[in-house]
TrEMBL record:
Protein name: L-2,4-diaminobutyric acid acetyltransferase
Domain of life: Bacteria
GO molecular function, one term: diaminobutyrate acetyltransferase activity
EC main group: transferase
Family recorded in the similarity comment: Belongs to the acetyltransferase family. EctA subfamily.
Start and end residues of each stretch annotated as Disordered: 1-21
Keywords: Acyltransferase, Transferase
Keyword Thylakoid: no
TM region(s), chain numbering: none
Length: 192
């Protein structure tokens, strides 16, 4: 058989259309979203659950550094964060929650990227910060992946030792040390 007699095999792939009710929309929350954000954190089974009041306050006082993801009318993810007063060129991510139905789709990264370029920093965020416990490998991979995509260093250093937390017996909980992940300087990018 000569090269001329071989015809390429053509396969047609049908692009799967996403119905509008399946698309995930990102927006800044309001205080009215506090209960939904609290529920996402609770249902994650992995996050420290803060007072519902804390989530209401984040939506009310810090909406521009927080995001909620919705599929149709259903909340499927959230990121709560703030710009530390001592480091106004940084975005500190406090909690990331993704519902079980939306996991494995890159939503956590998408929400964080959205905040980096739309938060009050308006794309001028030079650093991304978060704390991660040593046992939270998925979060460590998330932040290290963001650092790689931006070609930025990811410094990891102890921040809060176990001894800094309340006595486990008094708090009716155990606590792990928290390491500070500091990513940057970041390159500028467009909103996700």
């Amino acid at each position: 058989m000569t090269e001329a007699s071989v015809s390429p095999i053509r396969t047609t792939t049908r692009r799967q259309e996403t119905r509008p009710e399946q698309r995930i929309r990102l927006r800044h929350p309001t205080a009215d979203d506090g209960a939904a954000i609290w529920t996402l954190a609770r249902d994650s089974g992995k996050l420290d659950l803060n007072s519902p009041y804390a989530y209401l306050m984040m939506g009310h006082f810090f909406p521009k550094t927080c995001v909620i993801a919705e599929r149709g009318d259903e909340p499927v993810g959230s990121v709560i964060g703030f710009a530390p007063p001592a480091r106004p060129n940084a975005l500190f991510v406090w909690q990331v929650a993704v519902s079980e139905a939306a996991r494995g789709q890159g939503l956590a990264s998408r929400m964080i990227e959205h905040l980096l370029w739309t938060a009050p920093l308006d794309g001028s965020a030079r650093f991304l910060e978060a704390t991660v416990t040593p046992s939270n490998e998925p979060s460590a991979r998330l932040f290290q992946g963001i650092a790689r995509r931006h070609g930025a260093p990811c410094e990891i250093a102890p921040l809060f030792e176990e001894e800094a937390f309340p006595c486990p017996k008094a708090a009716n909980a155990t606590f792990e040390e928290e390491h500070l992940f500091r990513i940057g300087p970041l390159r500028q990018a467009k909103a996700a």
